[in-house]
Design goal:
This protein has one domain (2-243): TIM Barrel (Alpha-Beta Barrel). It contains eight helices and eight strands. It has helices spanning 22-35, 55-68, 87-96, 113-122, 137-142, 165-176, 193-203, 226-243, and strands spanning 2-5, 39-42, 74-78, 103-107, 126-132, 152-156, 184-187, 207-209. Strands 7-6-5-4-3-2-1-8 form an eight-stranded parallel beta sheet. The two termini are 19 Å apart.
Length: 245
């Protein structure tokens, strides 16, 4: 499975192609799906352009993207603490949502991750358990009583050095263990994005790509949009699928 991550916390100052408004997110999503993405992850933005978990921001973003992509393509959002620092605030906002995403990512090293995930499950929203390299997220996730109820585990490699990111990914997978209760999605970011995506392809794991993770193609040239990145990722995934016995 290839997920597209449309924007993340990136600003227009970093890249003019980063989608911010619901209409821009919808347009990027449909192009990415046409290019081969099978799932969508996005960060709703408030009026100030920053990540927001407010009911209106989430509803408008999810609603616009869901209306644009074909039926069956799941749409998910972040619950990152930078959007609402206090766990109680994040839980309250989730309970206020009127348009529900199909899934939402929870960063397991953040304070209150368990309560945020419980709130999502209570509302019937799939949980993507984000376990970052260099954190105690793997330990915390594995000791959570409802770990078996998550949609998937996101193994997120934060090492941006292309020469070491693959080794960091291997170490993270080892820490997560072989008996995870849910499917695994492996991905990297910035300089580590493409090396880790290749590692995921070689292992036959789900992965993701998009302007949240990297602004450049495998050859280092700038990507023009999310679809550009998805097409490049699809080529890599296809190559590894052909090689795999």
């Amino acid at each position: 499975m290839l997920q597209v991550c449309l924007n993340g916390v990136r600003s227009r100052g970093e890249d003019r192609h980063v989608p911010v408004s619901p209409a821009e997110l919808a347009a990027e999503a449909i192009r990415a799906v046409e290019a081969g993405a099978e799932d969508v992850h996005l960060h709703p933005r408030g009026a100030d352009g920053r990540d927001s978990l407010e009911t209106g921001a989430v509803g408008e973003a999810v609603g616009a993207v869901r209306a644009a992509v074909p039926e069956g393509v799941r749409v998910g959002v972040t619950t990152g603490a930078w959007a609402a620092p206090e766990p109680e605030e994040r839980v309250g906002l989730i309970r206020s949502w009127t348009v529900l995403p199909d899934h939402a990512s929870v960063n397991w090293h953040e304070e209150g991750a368990e309560a945020v995930a419980d709130a999502l499950l209570e509302r019937g929203i799939g949980v993507e358990a984000g376990v970052w390299s260099g954190t105690d997220g793997a330990r915390r996730f594995r000791t959570w009583p409802s770990a078996h109820r998550v949609l998937r585990v996101l193994a997120e490699v934060t090492d941006t050095d292309p020469t070491t990111a693959t080794a960091t990914a291997t170490a993270l997978l080892r820490k997560l263990g072989d008996d995870l209760p849910a499917p695994l999605l492996l991905h990297g970011e910035d300089g580590g994005a493409w090396p880790v995506l290749r590692a995921a392809a070689a292992l036959g794991l789900a992965t993701r790509i998009g302007l949240e993770d990297t602004l450049t193609l495998p050859d280092g040239s700038p990507a023009t949009d999310n679809a550009h990145l998805v097409r490049a990722a699809r080529e890599i995934l296809t190559e590894h699928r052909i090689r795999r016995p």
